Amino acid sequence: MQSLWNDKEALAFLGHPLKERVYTSRLLGKSTNLVLHGGGNTSVKAQVQNLFGEQEKVLYVKGSGWDLATIEEAGFPAVKLDTLLRLAQLEQLSDTDMVRMQKSAMLDPSAPNPSVEAILHAIIPFTFVDHTHADAIVTLSNTPDGEARLRDLFGNRVLFVPYVMPGFVLAKKVRHLIRDIDWSNLEGMVLLHHGVFTFADDAKTSYERMINLVTCAEDYLEEHSASAKRTLNPGLPQVFDPIKLAEIRSRISTVRGKAMVATLDTTDSARAFSLLNNVDTISNRGPLTPDHVIRTKRIPAIIDHDIDQAITDFTQNYHHYFDKHNPGNLTCLDPAPRWAVWKNHGIISFGDTVNDATIVSDIKDHTIACIQTAEAMGGWRVPSQQDIFDVEYWELEQSKLNKQKSLPVFEGKVALVTGAASGIGKACALSLRQQGAAVIALDIAEQITHLSASHDAPDNNLLGIKCDVTNIDDINQALAMGVKQFGGIDILVSNAGIFPLSETIAEMDPGTWDKSLNVNLTSHQQMLKACIPFLQLGIDPAVVIIASKNVPAPGPGAAAYSVAKAGLTQLGRVAALELAGSKIRVNMLHPNAVFDTGIWTEETLAKRAGHYGLSVEEYKTRNLLQVEVTSNDVANLACALAGPLFAKATGLQIPIDGGNERVI
Q1: Does the model's pTM come out above 0.90?
Q2: pLDDT tens-digit profile of 197-214?
Q3: Which of 197, 256, 361, 635 lies deepest, with the highest CB count within 10 Å?
């Protein structure tokens, strides 16, 4: 592991302890082999002037909800050091009381809650303290004779702390161990099965001690675990059945009690792990560190041919695990797995959101690599089930169960939107995303692949796929890609379409008629047919078809468009009849005069308005309510149709046109 310290960069922060703390914290956060998604914590001790003009010693410590990779000064709440040191002297303190007392000692009550390791940071008598869950050190710890290996490797440079529960219990344990210790000989502390601390009176030394200790462990693993190299037969096909994946996701969502996102990893490392003969046993011993259990649960599900039996087995085992360790006053969490080894296929990560599933997937990557390394060194060994249970059912976690949380309408759900590169389709995709859905967005335009791009970072909840919806092979390939990313389909917004040039029936080019029917009708039938198996496995599945005002009120010169949209509406009506038995709702929208789409340029608008002797504004609001109907208006209604408000309605045809006399 290379030190990322840069003297030129650091020069701007020297002499400013909190700025130095931010700088080296971010250096640590850049390496996922040290910390993952909010893991680890850092601190710096300093003197500040309080409201009375007095100098007061404080501990700036990483706050809850912040990630070391992106942390800022605001992410380090200032806590009165004397209070923390007094708390460390107590023989007993519940973690709930600890959090309350730490918060009461903060200089700014509106700042984030200090880390549960704040007391431990406080009792370490150095200015800078760094703590990570370094893969290499935890992996070594998780082998037979792991402590002995680590002692041989580090000698007297570090203090060794047996595994105990994080929080006050850990701080109390360390306080007893350091009573007669000579700190001048120490570079750090190894917390067995947990992580590593380093410390110094300057930021650079503390950081580089961390890098040096972890590098020693990495070099040791490299030397002693050559057989851990994972290989994969290049001849093995990289195929999977997306319907089976949707079935797995559906079953686990049912156990969870809400829709969940499922992401399938078929990279070489994931597939190689799923092909191991002993994958059942080695993956069921426990997590890389007990801290991960809150994200991943203790073990993954193991899925082979019988999906239902595999999930049933996991659920029953989880209830047994809870009953065995529950002292009698705890509330059982949901028994759904957060990751699964799908034998011979890869590994699936589950989450209430895409972000949750991504975090699980990242933790899984490190876990399976460490498991195989430890196996090559004699076997994967983790703390006891009781130790892991204590973290999963930590009183701080249990207290969260009583807090009501308002969830986005479509959290955990997966929506597919066609014609999503612009206009109504794009508005639908973005509105569904805003309301919590993961969205598979299809369009023939190349720009669809950039839909998720933003100025800050790509939106992993939006998957834009270039797809010709008139080509069944394109459709099947797109569905497979989308389902692999998110796990299934719950909502279909069938929107793709074209608006042909105005031609009377007598003058119509045969190509105009054929193309309109192909895009505006046949492609929807193909898409619906391809999606039905997924929708049947969906969570409260719904289809919204974007038809047209031309269905109830056609106009001259639009036969190709009107007939196709009328056929599409009839398709939707029949689908509502046929799919009701599968609890799939099918409803239709009839928009009119939606001008913020690609086909309506300023020139076209001006020309059409002039044809009627109206201004552009008058033309846009030429309806009974005299309002402009936008793509977002249509999208909002489409989302409502797909949501709980219309949970008991199917076969509806709803105009959204500001009121049209002919339609009425």
Answers
A1: yes
A2: 999 999 999 999 999 999
A3: 197
> How many other C-beta atoms lie within 10 A of the C-beta of residue 602?
8
Instruction: Quote the mean pLDDT of the chain.
Output: 93
- Residue 170 · residue 125 · CB < 8 Å: no
Q: For the segment 492-512, what is each residue's pLDDT rounded down to a tens digit?
A: 999 999 988 889 999 999 999
User: Are 622 and 637 found together in one domain?
Assistant: no
Rg of the chain over CA atoms, in angstroms?
30
Name the domain count of the chain. Answer: 4
Same domain, 525 and 605: no
* 376 within domain boundaries: yes
- What confidence tier does 598 reach under pLDDT thresholds 50, 70, 90? confident
Amino acid residing at 495: N
Q: List, by residue number, the catalytic residues.
A: 561
Residues 639 and 564 in one domain: yes
User: Would you give the end-to-end CA distance of the chain in angstroms?
Assistant: 71
Long-range pairs for 172-180 at CB < 8 Å and ≥24 separation?
172/88, 172/91, 174/120, 174/123, 175/88, 175/89, 175/123, 178/123
Nearest to 310 by CA among 302, 320, 318: 302
Mean pLDDT score, 117-123: 96
| Sequence-distant (≥ 6) Cβ neighbours of residue 98 within 8 angstroms | 87, 116, 119, 167, 168
Residue 33 bridge partners (DSSP): none
Q: Are 34 and 40 in contact (CB under 8 A)?
A: yes
Indicate whether 285 and 211 sit together in one domain. Answer: no
How far, CA to CA in Å, does 482 sit from each of 342, 438, 464, 486, 528?
18, 10, 9, 6, 15
Residues 95 and 191 in one domain: yes
